[in-house]
Write a structure and sequence with these properties.
Strand content: under 5%
Radius of gyration: 20 Å
Shape: elongated
Largest sheet: none
Order of helices and strands: HHHHHHH
Distance between the termini: 16 Å
Number of domains: 1
Structural class: mainly alpha
Length: 170
Amino acid sequence: MARISAVLALSLAIFCAAVPGVSQTTKPASASQALPPDAPTRDQVMTVLNLLQIRQTMEQALATMTKAMKDGAEQGFRQKVPNPTPKQIAAIHAVIDEALKDTPIDEIIQAIVPVYQKHFTKADLEEMIRFYSSPVGQKALERTAANDARDGAGCPGDPDETNERRAGAC
């Protein structure tokens, strides 16, 4: 859950800073913002982001955030209106869905590319690609995803443990 929150927060910050029309201080690229000579290519960055499953992570984070916002809005509404109708609850959920339906995940991902190009070298990304393409790298990604899913569900313990072995904790 912490990984999802961190990715979403970072992505939204990058998006707000880099996508025209979102930030009031967006400046056009200039010669002073040139990339280092050993900067990775856009294709290398996209390969790493694909290997890291950034799109899926962001989609999962958005779904989690949407549910949390719906739950929070519904709870707040129930404090004001103790017995809301199903139609009222559906209207609250529709407002949240409408607000988040056009979240530009592709634009956020594209905004991440120059950050990687600024902070990593071609050699760095070649190593990342080599690692995350390897069986150990894939296992690391799978384990991280399993831990995130477990944490997001509020489940304690090792992801290899069954629910029964956790004595019904999940």
